[in-house]
Amino acid sequence: MAIRRISLNELSGKVNITQANLSNLKRGKARAIRFSTLEALCETLRCQPADLLEYSPDNNVLKEKPIDLISILKKQTS
Q1: Residues 64-76: pLDDT tens digits?
Q2: pTM given for the model
Q3: Is 1-56 CATH 1.10.260.40?
Q4: Ramachandran region of residue 30, left (φ > 0), alpha (ψ -120 to 50) or beta?
Protein backbone atom coordinates (compact mmCIF):
# COMPACT_ATOMS: atom_id res chain seq x y z
CA MET A 1 0.00 0.00 0.00
CA ALA A 2 2.81 2.37 0.86
CA ILE A 3 4.60 1.74 -2.45
CA ARG A 4 1.37 2.37 -4.38
CA ARG A 5 0.53 5.35 -2.14
CA ILE A 6 -2.97 4.16 -1.48
CA SER A 7 -4.78 4.48 1.84
CA LEU A 8 -6.70 1.75 3.61
CA ASN A 9 -9.90 3.72 2.98
CA GLU A 10 -9.21 4.10 -0.74
CA LEU A 11 -8.19 0.46 -1.15
CA SER A 12 -11.27 -0.80 0.68
CA GLY A 13 -13.46 1.20 -1.70
CA LYS A 14 -11.70 -0.10 -4.81
CA VAL A 15 -11.74 -3.71 -3.63
CA ASN A 16 -15.27 -3.52 -2.21
CA ILE A 17 -14.37 -4.79 1.26
CA THR A 18 -14.97 -3.11 4.61
CA GLN A 19 -12.13 -1.20 6.23
CA ALA A 20 -12.38 -3.49 9.26
CA ASN A 21 -11.95 -6.64 7.14
CA LEU A 22 -9.14 -5.10 5.16
CA SER A 23 -7.44 -4.07 8.38
CA ASN A 24 -7.71 -7.64 9.66
CA LEU A 25 -6.12 -8.90 6.45
CA LYS A 26 -3.35 -6.33 6.73
CA ARG A 27 -2.59 -7.25 10.35
CA GLY A 28 -2.69 -10.98 9.67
CA LYS A 29 -5.77 -11.49 11.84
CA ALA A 30 -8.04 -12.86 9.10
CA ARG A 31 -8.74 -16.58 9.07
CA ALA A 32 -9.65 -16.73 5.37
CA ILE A 33 -9.78 -14.68 2.20
CA ARG A 34 -11.99 -15.16 -0.83
CA PHE A 35 -10.23 -15.67 -4.13
CA SER A 36 -12.28 -12.82 -5.59
CA THR A 37 -10.99 -10.50 -2.84
CA LEU A 38 -7.41 -11.66 -3.36
CA GLU A 39 -7.80 -11.12 -7.10
CA ALA A 40 -9.21 -7.60 -6.58
CA LEU A 41 -6.36 -6.73 -4.19
CA CYS A 42 -3.75 -7.98 -6.65
CA GLU A 43 -5.37 -6.13 -9.54
CA THR A 44 -5.64 -2.87 -7.60
CA LEU A 45 -2.14 -3.07 -6.12
CA ARG A 46 -0.64 -4.52 -9.32
CA CYS A 47 1.03 -7.40 -7.51
CA GLN A 48 1.02 -11.19 -7.17
CA PRO A 49 -0.69 -13.17 -4.39
CA ALA A 50 2.74 -14.14 -3.03
CA ASP A 51 3.39 -10.43 -2.44
CA LEU A 52 0.44 -10.39 -0.02
CA LEU A 53 0.46 -13.85 1.56
CA GLU A 54 2.99 -15.55 3.76
CA TYR A 55 2.93 -19.12 5.02
CA SER A 56 3.77 -19.41 8.68
CA PRO A 57 3.48 -22.91 10.15
CA ASP A 58 3.70 -21.53 13.69
CA ASN A 59 0.44 -19.60 13.20
CA ASN A 60 -1.71 -22.70 12.83
CA VAL A 61 -5.28 -21.41 13.02
CA LEU A 62 -6.78 -24.91 13.16
CA LYS A 63 -6.92 -25.60 16.87
CA GLU A 64 -9.94 -27.89 16.81
CA LYS A 65 -9.73 -31.66 16.66
CA PRO A 66 -10.13 -32.85 13.04
CA ILE A 67 -13.50 -34.40 12.19
CA ASP A 68 -13.48 -38.15 11.54
CA LEU A 69 -15.79 -37.99 8.54
CA ILE A 70 -15.45 -41.71 7.74
CA SER A 71 -16.77 -42.71 11.19
CA ILE A 72 -19.67 -40.28 10.92
CA LEU A 73 -20.68 -41.62 7.51
CA LYS A 74 -20.43 -45.25 8.67
CA LYS A 75 -22.72 -44.52 11.61
CA GLN A 76 -25.29 -42.89 9.32
CA THR A 77 -25.39 -45.86 6.94
CA SER A 78 -25.66 -48.55 9.63
Answers
A1: 666 677 777 777 6
A2: 0.65
A3: yes
A4: beta
